[in-house]
Write a structure and sequence with these properties.
The structure is a homodimer. By secondary structure, chain A is an alpha+beta fold. In chain A, 33% of the residues lie in helices and 38% in strands. Strand 2 of chain A pairs antiparallel with strand 2 (34-47) of chain B.
Chain lengths: 82, 82
């Protein structure tokens, strides 16, 4: 199924308590080489027809205005999958 | 910074109420060509040194055993970024 994938991460200078908790748990279980963990969102927008350039532009606008909160989050990638 | 990116999505035959709510909101605001939305997680594991094949194997094991719940989620991708 054609889909657009929007990837959103918490801004780098922001604390990410959920990521911190996962990093601590990984380190406790022996993965000491992992220095930090950040947890964001991966949003799939599904289409019933092939994806056009207009769809990509539209998704990009929705990603920054509606799907993410630009005070605390960055849209890191918008990709297409057929 | 070197990082391993783990992408996790809810299983396809599972309801995703958060995604459903976002799909409804997008459709109400005029994006009628979006047929469905699924929301998953994007987890970054940060390293202070270059990433080895051993790290990728390790991350793959942690992704399926600890970072995701394989009753309700699928690990859809594990990628490396330098």
């Amino acid at each position: 199924m054609p889909k657009i994938i929007v990837e959103i991460m918490p801004k780098q200078d922001l604390l990410d308590p959920q990521g911190k908790a996962v990093a601590n748990a990984l380190q406790r279980s022996g993965n000491r080489e992992i220095s930090a963990v950040r947890i964001g969102k991966r949003i799939e927008l599904h289409f019933d027809r092939p994806i056009t350039d207009q769809d990509m532009e539209n998704a990009s606008a929705q990603a920054s205005s509606f799907l993410s909160n630009d005070v605390i989050e960055d849209v890191v990638a918008i990709t297409k999958e057929d």
